[in-house]
Structure formats: C-alpha cells, structure tokens
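Retry 2 of 3 after timeout on previous attempt. Resubmitting structure tokens to design endpoint.
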C-alpha cells in the first residue's frame, strides 16, 4: 500500500488515465508474474482495488525512473511510458516482480504478527476467563460456606441466649429461694439462741444448791455439782454473732445463805434436768454450726452464679462482635463478586472480538499460504545449494586444517634448524677465537725461532 501511495503522489492523474486494457500489451510481465495473481487480477478487473494492484508495478517503475532521471518531469515520463510500454516493461519486469514479492512478504509478515498478537490475546483472555471462573466458583463456595457458618452461629447464639435466659431465671429464682430460706434459718437460729440463753440462765439459777445443805445431805461430796461446761464452739466466722452465757460467780454459788433446804430427790431431778439442758445446748450448737456452714455454701453458690452470669454476658458480646464481622465479610465478598462478574463480562466481550478478528486473520492467512508455499519451495532449493556450499566449505576447512598442521610442523622444524644454526654460529665463533689464539702463538713461535736462528748464525760466525 505504501508503494501505491508513492505512485499516486508522483502522478495523481495516472490512476484515472490508465485503462484496464494495458494488460494486453505486456506479455513478458504476465509471464514473470505468478499465474494465481494474474487469474485473480483478470477475474475482477473492473473494481478499483484491482486497478491499484495492477498499477503497483507501474508506480514502482515510475518511481525508479524518477530516481534515475530526476531532471525529467513526470509528464515526460508518462508520455515515454505510453509511447513504448513494451520495451520499458520488459527491462523492469524483474524489478516489479521483486517489489511485488517484497510487498507480499511484508504483508504476510504483518498478518503473521497480527495473528500471533491475536492468538496471544485470545490465550490470555481464555486464561483470564478460566481464572475468573475459578475465582468466582471459589468465592461462591466461600460465600455458601460462610452463610452456613453464619446460620449455624445464629442458631447456636439463639439457643445459647435461650439457655442463658432460662438458666439466669432459674438462678435468680434459686437465689431468691435461698435468701428466703437463709432469712428463715437466721430467725430460727436467733430464736434458738434466745431459748438457749434463757435455759442457760435458768440452769445457772437452779442447778447449784447451798453448800452447807449439800454437805449435810451428801457428806461424801466435797466438789460442787455438775454444771454445763464452758467450751468454745468451732464454727466458721459469720455475720451473726453467737451470744455467750455470762460467767457464774463462785460466791453466788457457794456463799448463798438464803438457800432453802431441799430433799435428796429434788437434787437428782435438778441434775437430770441440767444434763438434758446441756445435751439440748450441744445439739443446738451443732445445728447452729450446720446452719452457718449451709449459709457459707449458699453464699459461695451465689458468687459462682454471679461469675457465670458475667461470663455469659462476655460471651454474648463476643458473639455479637463475630456476627458483625461476618456480616462485613459477606458484604465485602458480595462487592468483590459483582466486580468479578463485571470483569468476566468484559473479558467475554473481548474474547468475542478477538475470535472474530482471529477468523478474519485465518481467512487472510489461508489466501496467503499458497504464495508462501511457492516461496518456501524456492527457499528449499536455495537451502540445498547452501548445504552443498557448506559441505564444500567443510572440506576446504579440513584442507586448511591439514595445511595448518603441516605449517605447524614446518615451523617446529625451522625452529629446530634455527637452534642448530645458532649452535653452529657459537661453535664457529669459538673456533675463530681459537684460530686467532693459535695464530698469535705461531707468530710468537716464529719470532722466537727468528731470534734463535739469528743467535745461531752469530754463534757460528764467531766460531
């Protein structure tokens, strides 16, 4: 499409002036262009789209001529093209075919990239939809579980409230009954204590006779009669104070001169009545201790019931807080579910759009696949040639390796020869030095010999 726009920019009147009958005068170009393209062009030659595809080669030729001859105006180019269309098209037919082929390759690459992009987008959309479905399913399951938990907690809370209400009512009624019984027991104990005090006073008054009369009646008795023992009561400390009997004065018991004389039978009756009163007092003390123990137990039970009531109120407040938290979580989950549903709806719309675009791209890809197969066949042939060249290159590389090995061997041999040559040079230098020394010795010997000969000659002449 960029080539067509450039051609219209060069000559805008070319598309309207060029008739569809120009195809009849270009046999060489028809032979070079693929047959499927010619069939497609001839089948729909009346449409303006086919005019654009037909004018692509011519626009490329014009653009090429404009780059070659920039001085010539476009009107001259049109005239020259109309005057001799066959010769120029025969010269530039391969260029137009290569341009068309490059255009198809670019279009194919663009379609492939678009298809890959749409496939990736579709895969991402499918993954997002599947993840959103899983998330929605998990959220629905979580919501149902939370609803069941909330319903169970609500039932448990209602049951616990009912039980707590009934238990509190029972405890209150029990506390009221115990307080009533406690008050009744306190009144009874007070009456018993009053009666016991009166009985003790009576026993103090009527149990001790005059010591003189007693000595007369019973001379063997030196000790006073039996009196109720003054022993402390081991009872728990309570709010009710136990009344104490006043101590009996000894002077009143034994120094009473106004004591009337009584027969022996009256003294025995007084002693038996005194023992009965003592036994009754002991029983009353035991009953009082039991009452006090019971009062302490009832007070402990009241404290325990108060503690349980405080615990129930605390659990009630905790359950209310948990219910509020669960309600807040449910509201948050509902909002998130609505957002997820909206995202799912948008993802479905995007998936539909991507599916439509994918169908269109697949249709375009099917139309371009035939042309790609032809180009792939040519690429295979060229690949075979490239493989043959690679094999030749490998053989040449092996030869080069052999040559390199030989060169390495020669280099090692030359290094050995150089070392031997250096050794010979050293030996030669040493031999030269020795030769010089020997020559010096020879000269010295010759000089000595000359001197000796001269001396011999002189000696011979003297003789």
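Retry 2 succeeded. Sequence:
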């Amino acid at each position: 499409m960029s080539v067509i726009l450039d051609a219209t920019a060069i000559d805008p009147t070319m598309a309207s002036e060029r008739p569809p009958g120009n195809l009849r005068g270009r046999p060489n170009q028809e032979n070079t262009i693929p047959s499927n393209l010619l069939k497609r062009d001839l089948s729909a030659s009346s449409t303006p789209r086919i005019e654009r595809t037909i004018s692509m080669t011519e626009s490329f030729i014009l653009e090429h001529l404009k780059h070659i001859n920039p001085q010539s105006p476009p009107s001259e180019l049109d005239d020259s093209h109309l005057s001799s269309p066959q010769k120029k098209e025969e010269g530039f037919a391969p260029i137009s075919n290569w341009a068309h082929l490059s255009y198809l390759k670019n279009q194919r690459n663009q379609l492939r990239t678009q298809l890959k992009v749409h496939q990736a987008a579709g895969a991402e959309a499918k993954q997002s939809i599947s993840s959103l479905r899983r998330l929605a399913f998990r959220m629905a399951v979580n919501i149902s579980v939370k609803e069941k938990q909330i319903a169970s907690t609500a039932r448990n809370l209602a049951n616990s409230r009912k039980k707590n209400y009934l238990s509190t009512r029972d405890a209150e009624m029990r506390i009221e009954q115990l307080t009533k019984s406690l008050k009744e027991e306190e009144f009874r104990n007070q009456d018993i204590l009053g009666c016991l005090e009166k009985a003790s006073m009576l026993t103090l008054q009527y149990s001790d006779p005059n010591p003189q009369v007693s000595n007369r009646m019973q001379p063997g008795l030196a000790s006073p009669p039996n009196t109720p023992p003054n022993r402390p009561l081991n009872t728990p400390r309570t709010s009710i104070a136990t009344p104490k009997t006043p101590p009996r004065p000894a002077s009143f018991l034994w120094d009473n001169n106004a004591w009337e004389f009584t027969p022996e039978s009256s003294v025995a009756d007084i002693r038996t009545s005194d023992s009965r009163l003592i036994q009754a007092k002991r029983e009353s003390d035991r009953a009082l201790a039991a009452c006090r123990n019971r009062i302490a137990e009832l007070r402990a039970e009241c404290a325990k019931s108060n503690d349980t009531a405080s615990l129930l109120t605390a659990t009630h407040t905790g359950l209310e807080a948990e219910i509020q938290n669960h309600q807040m979580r449910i509201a948050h989950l509902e909002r998130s579910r609505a957002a997820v549903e909206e995202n799912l709806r948008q993802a479905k719309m995007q998936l539909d759009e991507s599916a439509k675009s994918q169908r269109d791209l697949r249709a375009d890809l099917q139309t371009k696949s035939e042309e790609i197969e032809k180009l792939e066949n040519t690429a295979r042939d060229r690949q075979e040639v490239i493989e043959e060249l690679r094999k030749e290159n490998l053989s040449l590389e092996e030869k080069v390796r052999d040559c390199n090995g030989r060169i390495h061997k020669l280099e090692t041999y030359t290094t050995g020869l150089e070392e031997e040559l250096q050794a010979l040079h050293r030996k030669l230098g040493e031999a030269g030095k020795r030769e010089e020394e020997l020559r010096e010795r020879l000269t010295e010997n010759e000089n000595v010999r000359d001197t000796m000969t001269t001396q011999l000659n002189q000696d011979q002449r003297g003789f």
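Attempt log closed. Residues 153 and 323 are 8 Å apart (CA to CA).
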